[in-house]
Fold:
Amino acid sequence: MTSKVHAADVYNNSPRRPTTAFVALLTAAAFSISFLFHSPAHVQNEAILARCAALHTPVRPSSDFRTRTTSDRYVPGTRAVLVKNATIWDGEDVLPGDGRADVFLDGGIVKFVGDFSKSGLEFEGVEYDTLDAGGAWVTPGLVDMHSHIGSAAAPSLRGASGGGVRNGPVLPWLRALDTINTHDAAYELSVAGGVSTSLVLPGSGNAIGGQGFVIKLRPTVERTPFSKLLEPPFTYNGSGIEPANPPRWRYLKQACGENPSRAYSYTRMDNIWAFRSAYNEARKVKEAQDLYCAKAQAGQWDELADSAFPESLQWEMLVDVLRGRVKVNTHCYEATDLDGLVRLSNEFKFEIAAFHHASETYLVPDLLKKAYGKPPASALFSTNMRYKREAYRGSEFAPRILAENGLRVIMKSDHPVLDSRYLLYEAQTAHYYGLSASLALASVTSTPADVLGLSHRIGYIRKGYDADLVIWDAHPLALSATPKQVVIDGIPQLKPPHAHTVDKPAFLQRVPKTPNFDKEAKEAVEYEGLPPLVPRRRVKSVAFVNVSAVYTHELDEQQYTSGATVLVEGGEIVWTCTGTGGRCSERLQTVPSLEETVDLQGGVLGPALISYGAPLGLTEIPPEMSTSDGIAPDALMGVVPPIVGGEGTLVRAVDGLQFSGRDILLAYRSGVTSGITAPLHAGVIGGLSVAFSTGAAHKLEDGAIRKGITALHVSLAHVGQPSVSTQIALLRRLLKGHGTGDVKEYFDKAARGEIPLVVDVDNADVIATLLELKAEVEDSVGQGKMKLVLAGAAEAHLLAKQIAAADVGVILVPSRSFPHTWDQRRHLPGLPLSEDTAVSLLLSHNITVGLGIVEQWSARSTRFDVAWAYLDAGGKISKKAALALASKNLAHLLGVEHSGELVAYAGGDLLDISSKVVAVLSSDGDYVDLW
Ligand SMILES: *[C@@H]1O[C@H](CO)[C@@H](O)[C@H](O)[C@H]1NC(C)=O
Ligand SMILES: *[C@@H]1O[C@H](CO)[C@@H](O)[C@H](O)[C@H]1NC(C)=O
Ligand SMILES: *[C@@H]1O[C@H](CO)[C@@H](O)[C@H](O)[C@H]1NC(C)=O
Ligand SMILES: *[C@@H]1O[C@H](CO)[C@@H](O)[C@H](O)[C@H]1NC(C)=O
Structure:
């Protein structure tokens, strides 16, 4: 027999004595009986030959995989499920015709896709449950290519294990599996967002951070991390060699650029050297193995008599990389680092499966094509950018540009950086900015499945695939699409009381049409990621034609079903003419001052929105202090120098304001024309916020500052020291008039209700204490009602009645909650896990509610947050109430006048993911800005 026969049957890359391998070999089906008659030395030699051959066994599914009738993940006792009348997008496309089909799931796998009534006798006698999809969209379970779920804990607690290790730049032997906590709060939430599978990676603080693992998110009977793994390599639990089981994919996390450099205070040059020296060690082991095997295969046993098979527990993972058995996932942003990694891949001859974050891959598509083997895929965020220098040139158009270059695109969460419950929203936004519908859906299903080497079983709804699918309440690319049911390994995951569904309107059941962003995408490349964002033109007199609705400043909507023509002079609507052609265009011809006519293609003139919550206007690249105002001192945490006022110091955000940053300009051109920002602070006393125009060029421009001092801000949190009760004691003392300097002046005003007091707080118990404190202060000061506003407020819904009674406002920051901290753990998750959302519940108590954001890159997506809040409420709130969340209500709560601006949204309503901002109309400023 030749060693090749064994090659398929033996796989072992962990240290193991040849005799053990031999025992396993005895069970091999293809085993030659004559083998048994060899002498012991021969036996050992044959085992070595088998092991040598096994080194070259390619990774692939086991030989009987294609004919499996039950999944290795099948849970005995699981009933079969018929998903009836589904509209199926199967991982590649909508099924031929109208997409309608039934899906039969049994044994943890997809057994049938088609018209079940025509399935014949095959399933006769099988008992099953029926899920009637009623024509709803059904997709494969979502696959998240970059997650730290279960590893970066939710809620985050000191004692929780994590994936960020700082023991050295090269740690290929570490395994994320060893940090996976099966009790994490995020699994249920992410499953409720349709995610069935995630690649859990170690952190990015090392050049080589360790081994990643693919898990299914559903709970298992065993309750162990190992039982969550999908296709774990057989060596991980010591079961080692199994004849029918060829090697399975392993996953490695690497990182270049800022993160490893920051962790070890070394340079990019050191980082690449760390890679090269590590891979060189692995190469030596690999070459020693190959030399050893060459001698064995040539029968030169004498030369091997005294030497053991060369191996290294430390380097075996990298040896496997060099043998092509590892999907290498590299966190890498900039052209400079991408170039280094592409050179590394060619120097050591290994393939890079994907660059993660990859903010500049769209600028260097040809470089990716030069990588060793297949060009790496790019695993991206859709709009989460500029959060550090390396992400500064990231573009929302990257997905489409990469796809146009024939490169693979994956949207990922980096959970909990983004809550993976909203992974699909990343695909929706990528689609909005120009990625085709099928590639957008593939970017969170079949493409990651393929790049993970698992497209033989996940990422598709096809016969023989794992029974992972999602029934959606809207087209999966429509905003707010939420699972009605999520099936993983054939097991429906949403069960009462956590299975609430609503019927979404018909317009959400179609693929949203997307705006044309060809020019913007071209400019993104032309300007190397920093295209100009300022308006193309500022004019006084514009006509908008084909307008389908005009909103009043009170947010009432006047619809024009057959279109209207609207004349705007100096930012003000002068007249509106129903219709587009004839009479209306004749009327336009009588306007000599008309500078431009803009076709809104059925779009609207709608309200401008306000951004609150992020340090918008105070920092450009948050970790870069030179781009930032910096952090306000806090007298409770340390001594504030007397020269600035000591404990009486109160900082004003208006003094640190900076204009024309990229996030601020992107907000402006997305219809978010005002920002309200508190000083950046880490302590309790935040300072005074400012309201400003996001479109202004500088502070001294007319209208740049809408209000220099808007509200007084404080932050309360469980940080240990000083205690929450100490923080409350401080507030009590200051509100009762015992402060000094500016602190006294503004806390006195807050106590008298002359300025809003905005408190960052999430925990319901702390909120309860604040409500008591408010009553106490009003009682003792006796000068009217305080204007108290709770910001953050994840647990506010628990006290809705009391908050309403105390006439306290709430700003939900972020608008879609996640239990990052203990203080947020009792958040209200919304559909499908709860019937109410925080927004709908608080509004039902007549509380004034606003929406906020945490990071400034998301300011531009404020109208999508509003749309989510509106659609998620399942009809419980009106559109007008939804629009107020990010306009009128925020203005009211933060003590500013609602600006008189209107925004022109082309191609649809402002809450549609189909529309695009083309103009801002400022009546105060007497102009119209056009893009
Ligand atoms: C499938 O669902 C659609 C929409 O509810 C319905 O019109 C149609 O009759 C259903 N078809 C079957 C075969 O039940
Ligand atoms: C190790 O895991 C594999 C794959 O899940 C399984 O088939 C095998 O039985 C396990 N072996 C042991 C010793 O637990
Ligand atoms: C108005 O816009 C809609 C949507 O783009 C389009 O279908 C319609 O033809 C337009 N009407 C006119 C008169 O341009
Ligand atoms: C909210 O306000 C409406 C209209 O003023 C009123 O009918 C309703 O009873 C109020 N709801 C609560 C919970 O106070």
Observations:
- Confidence is low (pLDDT under 50) at residues 1-37.
- The chain has three domains: 143-235+245-285+315-465, 532-607+900-931, 609-899.
- The chain has 25 helices and 34 strands.
- Residues 69 and 107 are 7 Å apart (CA to CA).
